[in-house]
Write a structure and sequence with these properties.
The chain is mainly α. The chain is built from 4 helices and no strands.
Length: about 110
């Protein structure tokens, strides 16, 4: 009887550890899947470049992949910054200062 209870406790503990491990890895699964897709998709071009160049193929291919990934992200951030600047100039109106109130200047509505 003691042996069966021990086996049951091990099974429950093992299931708990596996469940917590999967819960921890849940946020990494999507980026890991994209990494696998990129690795499989670029394997043949990398092998071709490796056959052409004796040294530096890995560094060159890493630089090319970095540009291909980071260029769209940088462009998107640039567009977001421009849009934020355009919104701030057309939608934000400064509050009238004390000097405007004293001189009788009115701010536009």
């Amino acid at each position: 009887m003691q042996n069966q209870e021990n086996l049951w406790a091990r099974a429950v503990g093992g299931a708990l550890v596996v469940t917590l491990g999967l819960w921890l890895l849940h946020s990494f699964l999507s980026p890991l899947a994209w990494a696998v897709v990129l690795a499989v998709a670029t394997w043949q071009p990398y092998r071709w470049l490796e056959n052409r160049l004796e040294k530096g193929a890995a560094a060159l291919f890493t630089a090319v992949m970095a540009v291909l990934v980071l260029a769209p992200i940088s462009y998107g951030l640039l567009l977001v910054g421009r849009e934020a600047q355009s919104l701030s100039t057309c939608c934000w109106k400064p509050r009238p200062t004390a000097s405007r109130r004293r001189t009788g200047c009115r701010s536009s509505p």
